Amino acid sequence: MPKDNISNIFTKLEKCSFKVSKDTRKDVSGSIYFALKGGQFDGNAFVHEALEKGAVGAVADDPKITGENIYLVDNVLETLQIVARMYRDLFSIPIIVIGGSNGKTTSKGLIKEVLETKYKVHSSEESLNNHFGVPLSILSMDRETDIGIFEIGANHPREHTTLLNLLNPTIVVVTNNGMDHLEGFGSPSGAREANKEIYNWASSHSATAFVDKNQPDLMKDSKNLERIKYPLYKLEITNSTPLTIQFEGKQYITKLTGDYNVENIQLALSVGAHFKIEADQALNAICEYVPASKRSQFVKKGNVGFVVDCYNANPSSVELSLDSFLKSTGHPRGVILGDMLELGSYSDQEHKKVVEYISKQNLESVVFIGSNFKKILGNESFKYLWFSDSDKARKWFSSQNFDGYTFLLKGSRGVAVEKILE
Question: Are residue 260 and residue 325 in the same domain, yes or no?
Answer without folding.
Answer: no
